[in-house]
Design a protein that fits this description.
There is one protein chain. This protein is of the alpha+beta class. It is 25% helix and 38% strand. The protein has 2 helices and 4 strands, in the order ββββαα.
């Protein structure tokens, strides 16, 4: 399963971990993802989404019904 947020589209990126002596080591920085279940009362069903914390804030702001309509769920 890929680590991509289903709401915002965030995914991992490559960066450097830099030590005190300024040596660089490549590292993959992963997004903070959570699997959450959301209830849509109009359809009387639960929807499971893999979302980042920024995606959770988007759902809190717009509402699950508006976000589900954008995603085509």
């Amino acid at each position: 399963m890929s680590r991509i947020c289903e709401v915002t589209g965030k995914k991992g990126m490559i960066g450097n971990r830099v030590s005190h002596s300024n040596r660089k080591k490549r590292v993959k920085l992963q997004p903070n993802l959570r699997t959450k279940n959301f209830f849509i009362p109009e359809e009387n069903r639960w929807v499971s989404l893999r979302v980042s914390t920024q995606g959770l804030r988007t759902i809190d702001k717009k509402g699950i019904r508006a976000v589900a309509a954008e995603l085509g769920i």
